[in-house]
Design goal:
- Helices cover 35% and strands 15% of the residues.
- The chain is an alpha/beta fold and 180 residues long.
- Strands 3-2-1-4 form a four-stranded mixed beta sheet. Strands 5-6 form a two-stranded parallel sheet.
C-alpha cells in the first residue's frame, strides 16, 4: 500500500473521489464526467496513488459529503484535512470559506477584507481555484460581487456551482448565458 490512497463514491452530482495520506484527507475530486476521467484527474495530482478501502475517518467524511449533496445541511467544518504544502494565504482563505454554512454565501471581496483588504479579491479567487478539497472547503459558496456566481474550476463550471448551491438552498443572482 502506498502512502497516498483514494476512493471513489457516488453522489447526487456524480462520481466523486477522496484522497488521503498518513496525516489525513488531502484531496476531494468533483465529478469529471465518468469514473475513468475522475481517476485520471486524481492521478494527475498524485503520481503514486492507489485505490483503497477508506479508513473509518475517510468513510465518515464520504458519508457526510454524500448526505450534503443529497440536501442534508452539514458544514463539514470538523472534517480534519491535511493541507501540508498549501500556502499560508490559501489556508487562510480556506479557513474562512469553511465557516460559511450550507445555504449561505460570501463574496471573494468579503473574504479578501477579512484577510486584510478588498484588493486581495483576485488572490482569493485564485486560491479557491486551487482548492484541493472542494465541498469540504466549500469554494462553491463563494460568489463574485453582487452575489453573482463568478467562476468555478470544476467540470461543468458555473452550472456545477449553481447546482451545488441549489441543493443547499442558497440564493444566487444569476441570469443564464449562452455559456452555461
Amino acid at each position: 500500500m502506498t502512502s497516498q490512497n483514494y476512493a471513489l463514491f457516488d453522489t447526487a452530482i456524480g462520481i466523486c473521489g477522496i484522497e488521503w495520506g498518513p496525516r489525513g484527507i488531502n484531496g476531494v475530486q468533483l465529478p469529471m464526467g465518468d469514473r475513468d476521467k475522475t481517476v485520471a484527474r486524481i492521478g494527475q495530482r498524485h503520481a503514486e496513488i492507489e485505490e483503497a478501502a477508506p479508513t473509518t475517518e475517510v468513510k465518515r467524511a464520504i458519508d457526510r459529503i454524500v448526505s450534503l449533496l443529497a440536501g442534508k445541511p452539514d458544514d463539514l467544518a470538523d472534517i480534519a484535512l491535511d493541507l501540508d504544502g498549501v500556502p499560508d494565504f490559501n489556508r487562510g482563505v480556506y479557513d474562512i470559506a469553511r465557516k460559511i454554512p450550507p445555504g449561505k454565501t460570501m463574496t471573494y471581496g468579503d473574504i479578501a477584507k477579512r484577510l486584510g483588504g478588498g484588493e486581495l479579491s483576485r488572490d482569493v479567487g485564485q486560491a479557491l481555484g486551487r482548492n484541493p478539497c472542494p465541498i469540504v472547503v466549500p469554494c462553491h459558496r463563494v460568489l463574485a460581487a453582487g452575489n453573482k456566481p463568478g467562476g468555478f474550476s470544476a467540470r461543468g463550471g458555473v452550472s456545477t456551482k449553481l447546482r451545488m448551491l441549489a441543493i443547499e438552498g442558497a440564493a444566487v443572482n444569476h441570469t443564464p448565458s449562452l455559456f452555461d
